[in-house]
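REQUEST ID: PR-0412
SUBMITTED BY: lab tech R.K.
PRIORITY: routine
TASK: structure prediction, single protein chain
INPUT:
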Amino acid sequence: MMNETVSTNVSENSRPSFNLTYNFSSAEIAILAKFLRNNQSSLPKGLESFEKAIEDSVYNSLSLEEVRNFYS
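STATUS: complete
OUTPUT:
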């Protein structure tokens, strides 16, 4: 399932303003969640909200025991 929209707005004296809408599949969320958990210390600044959104998706979809097993 892929729904992607990318747009960029650039004015003369400013930085580009990017916008992305993407519906991640369950498999993509699982892969990203494990990747982000395993690479937390090297995650670039500015991706904290993205990381939290992925983690929240996992926690909101599974029981606490399932989350423990998922990240084990």
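NOTES: The radius of gyration is 15 Å.
REVIEWED BY: pending
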